[in-house]
TrEMBL record:
Gene3D superfamilies xref list: Cytochrome c oxidase-like, subunit I domain (1.20.210.10)
Protein name, per record: Nitric-oxide reductase large subunit
Entries under PANTHER family matching the protein: CYTOCHROME B SUBUNIT OF NITRIC OXIDE REDUCTASE (PTHR10422:SF38), CYTOCHROME C OXIDASE SUBUNIT 1 (PTHR10422)
UniProtKB keywords: Membrane, Transmembrane, Transmembrane helix
Signal peptide residue numbers: none
Tagged with keyword Transmembrane helix: yes
Regions that span the bilayer: 12-31, 221-243, 276-299, 332-353, 365-389, 409-426, 438-462, 482-502, 514-535, 541-562, 583-604, 624-647, 659-682, 710-729
Organism: Haloplanus litoreus
Length: 760
C-alpha cells in the first residue's frame, strides 16, 4: 500500500478536528458534571458547619502551601504524605464509628465485641451511602462530630507540624488556613462516597478503595479492563499489518555520503544555540541532587545522615519535601525544554545553509529570558510558599499544582519563550518553508513546537478558586498532552530532521515517516489523556473512552522503538559511521519510551489496576522511566550530536559521554526495577487487602521491607548522580575546544545543506 504525503496530511487534519471536538465536548461536560460546591454544609440542627467560600479558601490554602507536592488530592500529586481525599475519608469513617460506639454502647469502638462492631460499621456505611439532590449538604450528628475532629487533627498535623510525617512546623502558616484545608479535604471525601444523581456510584466512581465507607471498584472498571486487553491484542495485529503494508524508507549508510563533523561549517547562531547546553546541564545536575534528597526523605523524614544532630537544625525545616519536590519536577522540565529549544535552533542551518541577520543575537536574548524565567520561577516558589508574596502568591510565586507549580506570570514567560523560539525557528528554516508544501518537514517542526505552546495555554483556564475537578481537567491537558501528544510529535520530527541532516534519509522520505507516526500519536495520545479523569469527579463517559485510547497509545510507541532499533542497526553496519554516540541515546530513548510509557503505562492504566494503583509507587516507576528515559535521553542525544559537529574532529572525545550514558542507563534500571517497582507492588497489595489509605499510610512506608527497598535505591541514584556530574564536567571541558564559527559560510561549504535543498 502506497500513501502519499498529501493523503497522510489530510488524515492528520481530520484526526486533529476529531480530537478537538471530543476534548472540547469534554471541557463542556467538565463544568456541567463537576462535583458541586454547596452554598453551605449544615449540621443536624440546621447550623452552618462549612460554607462554599470556606471550601474554596481551603483549596487556595492547599495550593499556596504546596501540599500537592507533599501528598496528593484525588490520587494526584506527591506520594510522600497521605492522599488527602483518602485520609479525610478514613478519618471521617473512624470518627463516625467512635461517635456511634459511644452513643449506642457507651464505650470505645475498639472495645466492642464483633457483633456490635459490625452493627456500628453498617450504620456508618448507611450514613455515607447517599445521593446528592442539590441544595445544602446535610450532615448527620456523627458526620458533624467527625468533621470537627478532622479539623483539629489537620491543625495539629499541618500547622503545628509533625516531623515523623515529614511535615515541617508552620507548613500551613495559620490555624484558620489549616481548618479550611481540612474543609476542602473533607469536601473531596464527601463527593468520593456520595452517589452522583441518577447513578449507583459516587462522583469518583467509588474511588478511593475504602471498604469501611462502602467504596469498591465498579463493574465498569472490570468490563473496560477486559476490553482494553482485547484491544491490545487487536492493536498489536493492526500494527504488524500496518508496518508490512505501508512502505516507508529505512535509513541506510550504504552508498550515501554521510558528512563528517569537520565537513560542516558552524554558524554564529549555532554557537549561540549551543549555549543552552551548559545552562541545561546545570539544571540537570541540580535536579538529580534534589532527587537523591527526596529519596532519602522516605527513610529519614526529618534528617539527613545525622546532620540535624550535629547542627541542631532539621533539614526538613530548611528545605521541606514539598519545595524540594517542586524544584525537582520543574528542573526536570526546564533542562529538557532548554535542550530542545537549543537543538531546535541549532539544526536549521544544517538543512538550509542559511543564517538570518542578527539570529545569533536574538538566540542569546532568548537564552537570557529563559534564565530570568527559571530564576524567577524557582525563587518565587520558595517566596510564595513561605508567605512573602501575600495575595500575589499564585501569580508571582507558586501556583501549587504538580507540574504547574510556578506562578502564572512565570508560566506566561515560558509561553512567550515558546513563541519567540517559533519566530526564530521560522527565520532559520525560511529557505525550506518557502520551497516545501505545508506538510513538509520544516513545517512539521513548527507544528510540533506550536502544539506544545498551544496545549500550555490550558494552564491559564483556571484559578485557585476553580473547582478542583475542573482544575484537574485542564491541568492534565498540559501535563499529559505534552507527553503523549506534542512531545511525541516533536520527537519523531526532530529525529527525522536529524537523519536528513546526516544525509541518511531524503527529505521527502523523512516527511512521510514523520507524518505517519505523528498521525498515530495524535490519534491515540490526545484523547488518551482521559484515563486521568476516572477518579477525579469527571463524568462516567471517560471510563470507556480513556480505556480504549490509553490502550491504543502503545501502538506508536512500538513503532518508534522499532524504527530506532532499525536506525541503529543501519548505522552500526557502517564501521566508520561518525555519529554512533548520538544514536546510542536515540535507541536508549526508544527502549525506555517503550518500557516506561508503553509497558508500565499500559499496565497501570488498566481501569481495574488503576483503581487500586492510582497514586502509588508503580506510577513513580512509570514516570521516571518515561520522562527521563524517553525525553531525557533523546535530549542528551541531541546534545552529543550538536557537540560533535561543533568540535574539531581531532579534539573530539566521546569517552565521558559514553561513561555518563552507561551510568544513567544502569542507574535508572536499578532505581526502577530494584527499588521503585517492588515498593509499588507491595503498595498495590496493601491497598487491595486493606484500603487505599492503608497503602499510602506512614505505617506502610515504615515497614522494614519497604525501608530496605528504599535503601536499595541508593546505588541506582548514585549512578545517575555520578553520570550527571561526569556529563556536566564534560560540557565544561568541551566548551574550551569548540570550533570557531564562520561569519558567513556559503551553501557550498555546508555538505548537508546541498543535498537537502536539492531534494525537490
Amino acid at each position: 500500500m502506497r500513501l502519499t504525503r498529501k493523503t497522510i496530511a489530510k488524515v492528520i487534519a481530520v484526526a486533529f478536528v476529531f480530537n478537538l471536538v471530543v476534548m472540547g465536548a469534554g471541557a463542556w461536560f467538565a463544568y456541567q458534571e463537576a462535583p458541586p460546591i454547596p452554598e453551605e454544609v449544615v449540621g443536624p440542627e440546621g447550623e452552618t458547619v462549612v460554607t462554599g467560600e470556606q471550601i474554596r479558601d481551603g483549596k487556595e490554602a492547599f495550593q499556596k502551601h504546596g501540599l500537592m507536592n507533599h501528598g496528593s488530592i484525588l490520587g494526584n500529586g506527591a506520594y510522600y504524605g497521605e492522599d488527602y481525599t483518602a485520609d479525610a475519608l478514613r478519618l471521617k469513617t473512624q470518627y463516625m464509628r467512635s461517635y456511634y460506639a459511644q452513643e449506642r454502647y457507651d464505650t470505645n469502638y475498639g472495645a466492642l465485641p464483633p457483633g456490635e462492631r459490625a452493627a456500628v460499621d453498617e450504620v456508618v456505611k448507611g450514613d455515607l451511602d447517599g445521593e446528592y439532590d442539590g441544595g445544602n449538604i446535610e450532615y448527620s450528628p456523627a458526620e458533624l462530630y467527625a468533621h470537627q475532629q478532622v479539623r483539629e487533627e489537620y491543625v495539629e498535623r499541618y500547622h503545628e507540624g509533625s516531623h515523623e510525617r515529614g511535615v515541617p512546623e508552620g507548613m500551613i502558616d495559620s490555624e484558620t488556613d489549616a481548618r479550611q484545608f481540612a474543609d476542602f479535604a473533607m469536601w473531596t471525601a464527601w463527593f468520593s462516597h456520595t452517589d452522583r444523581p441518577g447513578s449507583d456510584h459516587s462522583y469518583t466512581n467509588e474511588w478511593p478503595y475504602a471498604p469501611g465507607a462502602g467504596n469498591d471498584a465498579t463493574g465498569a472498571a472490570m468490563t473496560w479492563s477486559v476490553v482494553a486487553m482485547v484491544l491490545l491484542v487487536a492493536g498489536a495485529g493492526f500494527g504488524i499489518w500496518l508496518y508490512r503494508s505501508v512502505r516507508l524508507p529505512e535509513p541506510s549508510a550504504e552508498g550515501l555520503s554521510v558528512p563528517e563533523p569537520g565537513d560542516v561549517s558552524v554558524f554564529p547562531s549555532q554557537r549561540s544555540a549551543l549555549r543552552f547546553v551548559p545552562v541545561a546541564a546545570g539544571l540537570f545536575l541540580a535536579q538529580v541532587l534534589l532527587g537523591g534528597l527526596l529519596a532519602h526523605f522516605y527513610i529519614e523524614r526529618a534528617g539527613f545522615f545525622g546532620v540535624e544532630e550535629l547542627f541542631g537544625v532539621h533539614i526538613l525545616q530548611i528545605l521541606p519535601f514539598s519545595i524540594a519536590k517542586t524544584w525537582h519536577l520543574d528542573l526536570g522540565i526546564l533542562w529538557i525544554a532548554a535542550t530542545w529549544l537549543g537543538a531546535g535552533l541549532y539544526l536549521p542551518p544544517l538543512l538550509t545553509g542559511h543564517e538570518p541577520n542578527n539570529q545569533s543575537t536574538y538566540i542569546d536574548g532568548l537564552l537570557a529570558a529563559v534564565v530570568v524565567v527559571t530564576v524567577g520561577g524557582l525563587g518565587g516558589i520558595w517566596l510564595g510558599a513561605n508567605g512573602y508574596l501575600g495575595d500575589l502568591w499564585w501569580l508571582l510565586g507558586n501556583e501549587g499544582l504538580e507540574y504547574l507549580e510556578v506562578g502564572k506570570i512565570w508560566q506566561f514567560g515560558l509561553l512567550a519563550g515558546f513563541g519567540i523560539w517559533a519566530v526564530l525557528a521560522v527565520r532559520g528554516l525560511k529557505p525550506l518553508l518557502d520551497r516545501e508544501p505545508v506538510y513538509g518537514l520544516a513545517h512539521m517542526i513548527l507544528y510540533a513546537g506550536g502544539s506544545i505552546a498551544l496545549l500550555f495555554t490550558a494552564g491559564f483556564f483556571f484559578t485557585p478558586q476553580t473547582n478542583i475537578a475542573v482544575t484537574e481537567f485542564w491541568r492534565w491537558w498540559v501535563v499529559h498532552m505534552w507527553v503523549e501528544g506534542a512531545f511525541e510529535f516533536f520527537i519523531v520530527a526532530i529525529v527525522g530532521l536529524t537523519l536528513v541532516s546526516m544525509n541518511l534519509l531524503r527529505r521527502r522520505s523523512a516527511e512521510k515517516a514523520v507524518m505517519l507516526q505523528a498521525l498515530l500519536v495524535m490519534s491515540t495520545g490526545v484523547i488518551g489523556v482521559s484515563h486521568h479523569y476516572w477518579w477525579v469527579g469527571m463524568p462516567d463517559m471517560w471510563v470507556p473512552i480513556g480505556s480504549v485510547f490509553s490502550t491504543l497509545e502503545l501502538i506508536p510507541l512500538v513503532f518508534i522503538l522499532y524504527e530506532a532499533l532499525g536506525q541503529y542497526q543501519a548505522m552500526t553496519e557502517s564501521g566508520d559511521f561518525p555519529y554512533k554516540i548520538p544514536f546510542m541515546f536515540i535507541v536508549a530513548s526508544g527502549i525506555w519510551n517503550f518500557v516506561g510509557a508503553g509497558v508500565l503505562g499500559f499496565f497501570i492504566n488498566l481501569p481495574l489496576i488503576n483503581y487500586y494503583e492510582h497514586g502509588t509507587y508503580l506510577t513513580v516507576g512509570h514516570a521516571h522511566a518515561a520522562m527521563f528515559g524517553a525525553f531525557g535521553f533523546l535530549a542528551l542525544g541531541m546534545v552529543s550530536y550538536m557537540l560533535q559537529l561543533s568540535i574539531e574532529p581531532e579534539r573530539w572525545d566521546g569517552s565521558w559521554l559514553r561513561a555518563s550514558f552507561w551510568c544513567w542507563n544502569v542507574g535508572l534500571a536499578l532505581m526502577v526495577f530494584v527499588s521503585v517497582l517492588p515498593v509499588g507492588f507491595l503498595q498495590l497489595e496493601a491497598v487491595f487487602t486493606g484500603s487505599y489509605a492503608v497503602g499510602r499510610s506512614l505505617a506502610f512506608y515504615n515497614q522494614p521491607i519497604v525501608q530496605t527497598l528504599f535503601w536499595a535505591r541508593l546505588p541506582g541514584d548514585t549512578l545517575i548522580i555520578l553520570g550527571t556530574a561526569i556529563y556536566a564536567a564534560d560540557i565544561v571541558r568541551k566548551r574550551f575546544v569548540l570550533r570557531g564559527s564562520e561569519s558567513d559560510p556559503d551553501v557550498e561549504d555546508m555538505a548537508v545543506a546541498e543535498g537537502v535543498l536539492g531534494d525537490d
